[in-house]
Structure formats: C-alpha cells, structure tokens
Amino acid sequence: MRRLTVIAGAILALAGALPLLTGLAAEPAVGREVEVPLLVGKFAFSPPRISVAAGDRVTFRIRSRDVTHGFAVEGTAIEATVLPGREVRVTVPAERAGKIRYRCSVICGPLHPFMVGEIVVRPNLWPLWAGALALGMGLVASAGVTRSAARADLLGWRPLRWLLTRRPFQFALIAPNLFAFTLIVLAGVVGTATGAANFATIFVWLAWWGLLILLLIPLGGRLWCAMCPIPAPGEWLARGTLVEHREGSVGLGLNWPKPLQNLWPAFGGLFLLVLFGLVITTRPLVTALLLAGFAAVALVTHLVFERRVFCRYLCPVGGLIGVYSMAAPLELRAGDLEVCRRCRGKACFRGGAAYPCPTFQFPGGGLARNTYCLLCTECLKACPYDNVALRLRPFGADLHVARGRRADEAWVALLLLGTALAHSLIKLGPWGWIKSWANFEGGVEFVLYTALFSGAVLAGLPGLHLLGAWLSRTLAGAPHVPLGRLFVEHAYAVIPLSLGAWMAFTLAVVLPNLSYIPRVVSDPFGWGWDLFGTRATTWTWMPLGLMPWAQLALLLVGLWGSVRAARRIVAQTLGDGAAARRGLVPLAALLVAVTWGFVALYFG
Ligand code: SF4
Ligand code: SF4
Q: What single DSSP character describes residue 227?
C-alpha cells in the first residue's frame, strides 16, 4: 500500500512538474495587439486584472486620477512614470502562458508597496499543474518513513562555547539593536508619515521582518530573542546591571497570575497585530508607538513580576517565533540527562554563577521543545558541568514530541496559517477594495473587514481543521479519542506549512521593495538627507518574474514537512497501522488544499 501511494504520488508530482518546467521554456507565441485603458489611483490599478492570450502584445493607455504614480513590470526593464492629466502608453508583450505582475514604482502614499496589478495570460494552467505537484508531494510525504537523524553539538567547537559563555557577548548583540530600535521610534515620531520613505516602517517591516522570517526563524528558531532590544532595558534595570551577574533583583518579583500562564495573551496580541497589519506596517507613527508600547510593557512587567514574563507570555512576536521555533533545526538541551539527575544545584533553572532561566525552562528537567527557550545562554553559563548542548537537528523535530501539546499553542499555529493566507490576499493581490477596507478608510468597510477577517481566521480555518479531526477519528474508527485532543494535537502538523507560507509571502513583499532600505539609511526621517549617497537607489531585480517559483518551492517544502509531521502525530493520537493511515487522509488533504489555495493565488 505504501509503495503504491509513493508511486502514485511520484507520478502525479511528475505530471505536474513537467508541464511547469516545459511551460517555462516554451517558445514565445505570436498573437494580437490588445489595447487596454488603465486608470491608476491610490492604491490600485483599474482594472486590477486583465486576461489575454499567450502571444498577445498588451498596450496600456495609462492615466492617473490623483497623484504621480509609476508603472513597472516585475522582472523586466519596462517602467514608466504616470503624471496626473497625461496619458502614457506602455506595451507589455505577453509571450507565455502564466501571470505577469506590475506595480507602482513611484512612492504615492502609505499602501504604495502593495499597489499591484496582474495580466493573466491564457491558457494559464499553472495553478492546475502546481496543484498536481503539491498533491503528488503530499502523497509521497504521507507514505514516507521518518528516520531519526544524528544531532551534532555545536558547542563541541570550543571557540563557540567560549564565546557564548562570555557575559558581554549577549550585551554586544543587543546594544546595536537597541540603537536601531531607538532610531526607529525616533523616525516614526518625527519623520515623514510616508511609510516607504521612513526608516521606522522600512527597517521594521522589510529589513527586520524579512531577516526574521526568511533566515532567523527557519535556521535558528528563537535566535532573535537572544538579541531583541525590547526586554533589555527592563531586564537591566531589574538586575541592576548591564552585563555582570548580580544577586538579587531591583524588581518586586511577583508571580505572574496562574490563569495567564499560557500563550493566550500573546495570541490576543498577535490577532490584533495581524488584523491591523496593513495600518501598522505602512504607518511610521503607529509602528513607533507599537514598539515603544511593547518596550514600556516589558519594562513594567520586569519591575513587577519575576523573570521575563513579557517574553514568556505576552509578546505577540514571541508567540509567533516560539511556535515556529519547533520546526527549526537548532535546539538547546541538556547534554547528558544522567548528569542532570545527579546535579544538586540545578543552576540552569534556579540560577548560580549566572541568572536562572528567564522563561522558567529547565534544560536539566528534560526540556523537550524550543517554544519558550530564548537562547539567552544563561543556562550555558550557569551549568557547572558544561552539560548544556546546542545541537543541529532535523527540521521539525519538536513536532514529534507527544508530551505537553497545548490548546494555546495549537491556536497560535492555526491563526498563523490563516493570517498568512489573509495577508497574501490583502497585500499581494491586485484588489484595491480589500486594501482600502483593511486600511481603515471607512468605518463600515472596516467593520466588515474585521468581521470577514475574524470569521476566516478564527472560525473558518479552525472549523475546517475541526472537521478534519472529526473525519480522521471517524475514518480511523476511534470514537473513544476526544475530538478536542485531536484538534489540538493535529494542529501542530500545520506549523511547517504555515512557516513556508509566511516565507513565501515575505519573499514577495521584501524582494520588490528592497531598494527602500538603502534609501532610508541615507534619509531615515524622509527629510531629504543623503547621508551615504544612497537616497536615490533604484532596484529592478530581473529574476522577479521567477518569484512564484520560489514561493512554490517554499510552500512545497512546508507541505512536505507538515505531512511528515502529520503522519507521526496521527500515529500518536490514533495508533499506528491501517487505522492511522486512514485517519491521516483528512489532515493531509486539508494541508494539500491549503497549499493549493496559496498556489492558486500566486499563479492563478
Ligand atoms: S545545571 Fe547543568 S547539570 Fe544541573 S540540571 Fe541544569 S543542565 Fe543539568
Ligand atoms: S536559560 Fe537556557 S533554557 Fe532558559 S531561555 Fe535561556 S537558553 Fe533557553
């Protein structure tokens, strides 16, 4: 049966991959001359999408209905400036079937980076082929066997252990980020209100977010938390020192309330963050106030409660990173648990020569997941036996840990997947009306948007997931397994796909807008400075036409990881064997369907 599934999956994947590759190499066709009047206004093209046949040459007659805009076709050198009151003609050859994206290339207001339009070139069967590829890969992944791989301790390399156990090291990581943080808040408050020209929005939502989602989380899990400047002032104040270890605390050291000892506060914050995402990411002042607010809450909680309550329970970004860090190929764990069993002081948890674990983790007590480990290295410095290891491991290893799966983490995982899809639609899609609804431009529209967004991410996707759990239980013939347990545990399987989806989304936001980074470095406040001569940097990254391919690759890797994790998880919840294989079908089908949803959006 397994072999049959692998063969069927491989054939399906090949059937999807071959037309995709040959379509890419197809000879340009010759067709009609097509003229299209295109009206440009803040922040959409009208019509937002047109459909032509492969080989057609599309000549746009472009007019602006408000300010000066630009018209640039991604992945080509075709670009024009559209002044109000003047018609500009631009010809775009639609040589091959697929999709061509164009965007505004002159900063025109807050939503400028997301002002895009699309030419769908018929016959566009690419969503179908990419869907077949996803389905085939899903089938192969569902039949594969996960082998446990060896884990290498990076701290076996002595210079690294030496470096990580120096107290000034973490300070050296945080200090430059604190400087950037201060500049971000300052730029947000005193700089231009145009997001694309302000250091605050560009640095936070392009540079930092891109680095976080595309590199730090997938490779290092919570590595960012080791250098995050937000909790630093509160921590330094509560400890009464910047670098050295000092006994006692300046803070009150109260216990955090038990009912809030979970990720629900972070879940709430994360939901608000993604709901207001378009406003936050395009308004420098909102970005600055948000970050300053985070720092203020972190400061107060440090002084009132014990350890890093903000990072453990409250930080919305921490909730996101924590859940995704379970998929990362890096883990900090105790080296030899037998040494820990004999260890009397348990300094990693209680403190000793260094501070106790700021998030109440206990490496010596069998720390099993990355979720709450900030990689702050205190336990490394505290352990008198050098028994803490920093290991490379297979991707997604924590998702196989059956013990301790929780509803709050499961809901964060589902929220992240739903919001990846919602934000892809809002920010990457050509539909101006969704953008203006999400941009707080009208009271009624914003209420409607809030209802739609909340319904989709809090009820729609979780509802489908619940249905999948019920079907899994029914197909597996296991009515005794509580549905709530299946809902929670199966949700961990979506984490790799969800991370892949956020990476695919982030790539499409960051790459076309990369030129704004050198610009704001020279002119952080948008006041016309040119400190480093980079204020006029322009960027046309030719391979942008290949963006959907990179997105597809990220989605497929995520799908693969998710289905593999689902296979393990279902075996834990519904038992191994034929029943579990039947129980896997609805969960794997949902994962493939969601992947196809993204594929349809990016290729269709
Ligand atoms: S201090 Fe070291 S040896 Fe003791 S429990 Fe913690 S990791 Fe284990
Ligand atoms: S003390 Fe150790 S276990 Fe605790 S957050 Fe820091 S690195 Fe992670």
A: T
